[in-house]
Fold this sequence. Notes:
The protein is of the alpha/beta class. Helix content is 44%, strand content 14%.
Amino acid sequence: xxxxxxxxxxxxxxxxxxxxxxxxxxxxxxxxxxxxxxxxxxxxxxxxxxxxxxxxxxxxxxxxxxxxxxxxxxxxxxxxxxxxxxxxxxxxxxxxxxxxxxxxxxxxxxxxxxxxxxxxxxxxxxxxxxxxxxxxxxxxxxxxxxxxxxxxxxxxxxxxxxxxxxxxxxxxxxxxxxxxxxxxxxxxxxxxxxxxxxxxxxxxxxxxxxxxxxxxxxxxxxxxxxx
Length: 227
């Protein structure tokens, strides 16, 4: 029996989530926490497989990231109510394996929990790039040929949680070169920050969950990136 814990958000929303998750075959809601303090107490007494963490549980952005990091050390984390690119970036770096926008549907929530319980990774946002300005007003479709092979390497590692310094070291590039690659990719898709670029990478299928690997040694074949 897989166990799920709910934390944060309005009481009625938690009740609705509990009802939806309770319908999953082989799953049960282990407990509900109103705030971060109650969640930490529950985690002292229980070992859930997944914690669905409402974004509104935090009081400041950095505190929420630290909470995700702490919880991710004990269970897989699905963040519900992600507010945009910066949220995506911070939550991924902190260890979340699932992200849902505030307007996610019940089937999307069920799918996210099932995916994470199975050891997968999922990002489902509310038109993550819809508010992002671009030359054509809408985010342009991107295919594999839009990015250079090096940009694809940078994008894949960025989506895997590498920061700029680690990314530069892994690919043997200067920090300035890494910054240039990222800036060019932001411009190509019309994203305003790295979080939106990461969300786009997963939602477009350009990067597949679980596909991030260490970059090859010099002379080896390039990284495989989903088209």
